[in-house]
Amino acid sequence: MAFISPDTIRKNFSIAMSDMFRQEVPAYGMLVDMVEQINSQTLADDAKLQVSLESTDGVERITEERHGAIRLGTEEELFNMRRLFAVMGMSPVSYYDLSVASIPVHATAFRPVERAALAVNPFRVFTSLLRLDLIKDEKLREDAKEILSTRQIFTARVLELIAQAERDGGLNEADSAEFVSEALETFRWHSKARLDQGLFERLLQAHRLIADVVSFNGPHINHLTPRTLDIDAVQVEMPNRGIDPKAIVEGPPARKCPVLLRQTSFKALNEPVFFKDGEDGWVAGHHTARFGEIEQRGAALTPKGRELYDTLLNDVRGQIRPDGNGSNSEEYMAVLTEVFAAFPDDWAEIRTQELAYFQYYLTEAGLVEIGNNAGRDLDALIADGLVGYAPVVYEDFLPVSAAGIFQSNLGDDQGEEFVFNPNQEMFEKALGAAVLNEFDHYATMEANSIEAILAQFNAVTAAE
Ligand code: OOG
Ligand code: NI
Predict the structure, then answer these.
(1) Which of 140, 155, 199, 210 has the highest CB neighbour count under 10 A?
(2) Residue 221 near ligand 1, beta carbon < 6 Å
(3) What domains are defined for the chain?
């Protein structure tokens, strides 16, 4: 019985999730339509971009590309979530500590890691685990723990299918289809809370995020993010379509050579929910959790490039902090642009200074001359126009940007302050695995690409 490839299962799952979210949150559908229009316009206006995307990421990948986010309550939920995503070829990459931004969670991103897998479908899920250890109120902490201890966010059938995939090494067509629909249940919105309004309010006061994680039957997908080729155009266009965007675009400013990640979102919707009222009664209330986000992806930076990025961003934040209400957005963007002038904005320069990772390919001239250049080094081949290069796309997330996204959709009343307190060891213990180090991974991708291109030049001569 043939197994369906994990990449195909992931692709099917990401489409199913997008369809579900479109039905649940109509504003998301509007955003997707808008991004698709702007992406095709951008490509039509920029033939060079079209060519460069074709030789690296593939254009189709971008239109279908999404990331989502969920917030989990217990170690066991995180453990099983890792197993669930593994069936779809998604592994935990990087550790993100959000306590820095007074958000009581730490997180990882589940995503495909190999180039071929990313090309099929790059679906990723930013997955946070609530840190009850950071809540000071002991009674509240115990209440939250107690409520979480009795919830089961996975269907019995999906747990069986996960175990089967682990045991047999995969799922056949019928089982993988059932896996997709059973897995989807975990991410669905539940309007009936597991607690009464009084406790919900107390959790809200400690932190809105705690209430969001603890109160419901599952970790509803809180946003799905399409990838745009022109985030500034989408930011400007949102209000024209009746969508209210957050004040600023997170991440680096607009540049000729995009790096890392730029993100913006629209505010969370205030949605009707029901709280428990006595034995089997319900009382109507509201909860804000789900929102929309878009992102633009640029080059993956080396530790040296990332350090420069972090230094510049800190410098900006030392001068001005973006106000949630948008009162200083223009000034913020002006300072950001000015400070980031110190980050080279030319691919050749970025490569020479080793600020980003690159992948290498044979140019047309290289193809003709391939037999006459054995043993030459990469820089010489590039200088002669025989080898071209393109930046490796950044597939991960940024803690400061993520914090800005969390904050914009949690509202301004932040609740308790939490101390900076990363604990990767505790996170990995719950996860049941180590997270992949993103820098090591990008470095390996680059090294493999260099090795492959040099081997091509050397192999031809050797064969003659
Ligand atoms: C996750 C926020 C982080 C991103 O794109 O950086 C995120 C959340 O609000 O649960 O999705
Ligand atoms: Ni996001």
Answers:
(1) 210
(2) no
(3) 6-298+395-433 (3.10.180.80), 301-344 (no CATH), 358-391+435-464 (no CATH)
